[in-house]
Design goal:
The protein has 13 helices and 16 strands. It is α+β, with helices and mostly antiparallel strands. An eight-stranded mixed sheet has the order 1-9-10-11-14-8-7-2. A three-stranded antiparallel sheet has the order 3-5-4. The radius of gyration is 27 Å and the shape is elongated.
């Protein structure tokens, strides 16, 4: 969530930031500002009552010591009256606090001052192209679903029989290629880029999804289930839409040693998303499915280091595409296209010949202290310094299925075979997949 003090003291600046995100969240900001004013008035009233009660209680002791029973009785009656009034006021204050938190949870992160201002994704800015450009084909390239089905390594029909639409099943060399891509990326990030590999749970509690901003905003895209805990009761649980959720929450309710920052974590997990609102989009292949694999990158940094960390994070994701010889470009998202919890975002898009266009394979974001405030994740520069909120960053390093699709399309041959990129051959065990 945003810093309430910033919203309160600089409302016009906050309004501009929300307006630059398209403005649809402005009502939530106005709700917060009104609720905040009412809450502070009520808080002052409750604190005044508490102060009056405490002062009267102290005076009772003094009156009794002076054997002034009449004064003591009057003071005791006053305290009794205050105690009768306060529960209702305190209950109202608690309800007001809950409403403020709800409003804050509905306000997106304010865009960073360096994010390009724009009204739609059409105003995103191309920052650079990768070193390799799309190679020409002397035949009409097929899409990855057709290539995979001809090779017998991608079976959409079998997945539909098991789970319905927007699922994929990989066979033989296809399953091996998926595993090879993921292992290659994990080795690259852990051995060369300094990340610690984590194998997290795939089910998380609601407050964990709330901590990174998935709840309540994206509840309709998440898969919810029930889990029986040790207390014998049923509890809400959510399948992770990305391993950003468990990785970032590892520092939840922690006060970290600033000398040990940044923390850099990576994980290879399945991701589960209902893809609500995408009916009719990307119905072929594995570009948009309900379950997909991803290698995630997460940073926990000191505030002054987070923007530099974002550039480094993007570079790590780019290295995967360079090593795999896949054409790509880097896009900086404009304010209207930045995700709910981010203040600045770069997308990496890889080339798909069958579509003759670039498609997103990674989104790398600086979330500033937005997630840290939700998680109460802090650090100290030294043992005596006051705790400060950390900054959190995340990015795909990369989405495995989309890399799989790009390899099938960019490395397909006229005879139907697919060349394996050189960097991947030690993991795959061959230099091609042949019919």
């Amino acid at each position: 969530m945003n810093d309430p003090k910033l919203l309160r003291e600089k409302p016009d600046e906050a309004r501009r930031g929300i307006q630059n995100r398209s403005g649809r969240y402005l009502p939530y900001l106005e709700d917060f500002l009104k609720l905040d004013g009412d809450h502070r008035s009520l808080l002052q009233e409750v604190e005044a009552l508490r102060s009056k009660r405490n002062a009267a209680s102290q005076e009772i002791g003094k009156a009794k010591a002076a054997k002034d029973e009449a004064k003591a009785k009057a003071l005791m009656d006053e305290v009794a009256g205050l105690k009768a009034t306060m529960p209702e006021k305190e209950k109202a204050l608690e309800a007001a606090s809950a409403k403020i938190r709800e409003a804050l949870m509905s306000i997106p992160n304010l865009p960073h001052a360096t994010a390009p201002i724009g009204k739609s994704e059409a105003e995103n800015v191309q920052r650079r192209l990768g070193p390799l450009q799309a190679k020409p084909f002397d035949f009409k390239p097929l899409d990855h679903q057709s290539v995979g089905e001809k090779l017998g390594i991608l079976d959409i029909a079998a997945a539909a029989k098991l789970s319905g639409s927007r699922f994929a099943l990989l066979r033989g060399a296809g399953a091996r290629l998926e595993r090879a891509i993921a292992t290659f990326m994990l080795d690259l990030h852990t051995q060369k880029h300094g990340y610690t590999e984590i194998w997290p749970p795939y089910l998380v509690r609601p407050e964990i999804a709330e901590g990174t901003g998935q709840l309540p905003k994206f509840a309709d895209t998440m898969y919810a289930t029930k889990s029986s805990a040790d207390d014998g009761k049923s509890h809400d649980m959510y399948l992770i839409p990305t391993s950003e959720v468990p990785l970032t929450n590892l520092v939840r309710d922690e006060i970290l040693d600033g000398a040990k920052l940044p923390l850099k974590m990576t994980a290879y997990t399945p991701c589960f998303r209902q893809e609500a609102g995408t009916y009719g989009k990307d119905t072929r292949g594995i570009i948009r499915v309900h379950q997909f694999d991803k290698v995630e990158l997460v940073w926990i940094t000191r505030p002054e280091e987070s923007m530099k960390a974002l550039e480094e994070l993007v570079g790590h994701a780019e290295t995967v595409l360079r090593e795999l010889e896949i054409p790509y470009r880097v896009i900086e998202l404009c304010t209207a296209d930045i995700g709910f919890g981010a203040c600045k975002t770069y997308d990496l898009e890889l080339w798909l010949p069958s579509e003759n266009r670039y498609r997103e394979v990674s989104s790398c974001s600086n979330c500033w202290d937005f997630q840290a405030r939700r998680m109460n994740a802090r650090f100290r520069t030294d043992p005596k310094s006051p705790p400060q909120f950390v900054h959190t960053l995340n990015g795909s390093g990369l989405a495995v299925g989309r890399v799989f699709a790009a390899i099938l399309e960019n490395f397909q041959r006229k005879d139907g075979s697919v060349e394996i990129p050189k960097a991947l051959r030690p993991y795959f065990g061959a230099d091609a997949i042949t019919p």
